[in-house]
Amino acid sequence: MNYPATIGIVGGGQLGKMLTLAAKKMGFFVIVTDPTPKSPAGQVADRQIVGDYKDAKTTRLLAKLSDLLTVEAEFVNDGVLQKIADKGVPVHPSPKTIGIIKDKLKQKEFLKKNKIATAPFFPVNSPDDIKKASKKFGYPMYLKARMDAYDGKGNYLISSEKDIDNGLKKLKGRSLYIERFIDFKKELAVMVARSIKGEVKVYPVVETIHKDSICDTVIAPAKISPLARKRAQVLATKTIKLLKGAGVFGFEMFLIPSTSVRPASQRGEQTQDKSSGQAKVLINEIAPRVHNSGHYTIEASVTSQFEQHIRAITGLPLGSTDMLVKSAVMKNILGTREGIGFPQGLERALRIPGVSYHLYGKRDGRVGRKMGHLTVVGDSVEINLKKASRARKALGI
Ligand SMILES: Nc1ncnc2c1ncn2[C@@H]1O[C@H](COP(=O)(O)OP(=O)(O)OP(=O)(O)O)[C@@H](O)[C@H]1O
Ligand SMILES: [Mg+2]
Predict the structure, then answer these.
(1) What CATH number does domain 120-180 carry, 3.40.440.10, 3.40.50.300, 3.40.50.720, 3.30.1490.20?
(2) Is 150 close to ligand 1, i.e. is its CB under 6 Å away?
(3) Where does 6-92 sit in CATH, by number?
(4) pLDDT tens digits, residue range 27-67?
(5) What is the mean pLDDT of residues 258-271?
(6) Domains in the chain: boundaries
């Protein structure tokens, strides 16, 4: 590969922006694609091609202008990316891997086939299948869109038979499947990097706290038992060995008391695992890319997930995944209204010591939209959490 190479990124959102900034820091040229002119990544890249993530022409043009391609999302045209890879332009991760992961049902089938612990699931081809699934799993259960789902937008919680029609209405026109409801104790995430040379590095296990199915807060490292931590890291490294391609991958997980995964017939029996050592870990889903749960690494780690991804796909040695601080808390700045994407109250928020502020540069704000994030680093997780909450509350967006 020529150095400095031109890296083409499919997708120009916040992940693309932070990838671009890391690549630019390292002297690469970057071109991104995004349907919105002056997208977050387009504002900092050398060039933006205006076009949809899935658009074949846009993706082909990106490949023509770049030395290698990568993605900031799984909702891409993996068929075209495969053809591009076949013609000799490297694509990371492998389009085959993206193809498995972007269809959540395919992803679940892949995990099951490889005996990787995950929430039990049931394919849905007709409304009747939902009732069949309820006989197997009991209520509540999740009705999920197989594709193009993010921030919980493709999910519908079915609490009883009465909810089935509403769920089908909300997810009309999309291919669906059912997932058993997991009564988790905590949600965890692990980022793993693999370079094109096969080097693998694992980041610390973090806790993710979701509100209304959207990631709200990340605590790094997670406050969990050493055994749970070990299990999460082993599960992530075992899974990455099954997936082709280089780059950073995010593994979303559920930590559950070991008695929670049991047949519906045994529901109502013992639900709490009294011995903390028996915690089980399941994979919720895999992201074939950098991930929201790894944003804290920008301020808190020797190598950020974004720099690590660039190193991984350009064949450079991977950096240390160690944290530079005892604790980091990341809080998403989620939109609470329609309007311009710039917050009020920045002075008050940034007067809090230790707060780092990221605004993605999205022109329009919307309820629940990821507009930016805050990271607080320091010795005490409790103090970091308090500071992050205070800073978030000070911002009106
Ligand atoms: N089977 C389940 N049991 C219990 N809770 C679940 C289940 N599936 C999803 N959830 C909850 O909903 C959240 C979002 O679900 P999921 O990861 O499927 O959605 P997504 O749209 O892909 O979200 P993201 O973009 O954050 O990855 C999860 O993080 C979890 O809090
Ligand atoms: Mg998820």
Answers:
(1) 3.30.1490.20
(2) yes
(3) 3.40.50.20
(4) 999 999 999 999 999 999 999 999 999 999 999 999 999 99
(5) 46
(6) 6-92, 120-180, 186-394
Pairing assessment for the beta strands 68-71 and 91-92 based on DSSP bridges: parallel
Q: What pairing do the DSSP bridges indicate for beta strands 91-92 and 214-220?
A: unpaired
pLDDT digits (tens, 9 = 90+) for 127-139: 999 999 999 999 9
Ligand 2 centroid, distance to 86 Cα (angstroms)? 30
For ligand 1, atom 15, which residue shows the shortest CA distance?
152
Instruction: Tell me the C-alpha distance between 341 and 339, whole Å.
Output: 6
Model pLDDT, residue 259: 59
Query: Which residues have their alpha-adjacent CB atom under 5 A from ion ligand 2?
Result: 252, 285
CA of 105 to the centre of ligand 2 (A): 13
Which are the contacts of 32, defined by CB distance < 8 A and separation ≥ 6? Answer: 8, 9, 10, 11, 12, 16, 20, 39, 41, 42, 45, 47, 48, 49
For residue 207 and ligand 1, the question of a CB distance below 6 A is answered with: no
Predicted pLDDT at 257: 80
HSE-CB of 353 using CA atoms within 13 angstroms: 2
pLDDT of residue 4: 78
**152 CA → ligand 1 middle, Å:** 6
Contact 155 CB / ligand 1 (< 6 Å): yes
Q: Which of 15, 111, 155 to mutate to test the pocket of ligand 1 (most atoms within 8 A of CB)?
A: 155
Quick: pLDDT tens for 345-376.
Answer: 999 999 999 999 999 999 999 999 999 999 99
Which amino acid, residue 135? K
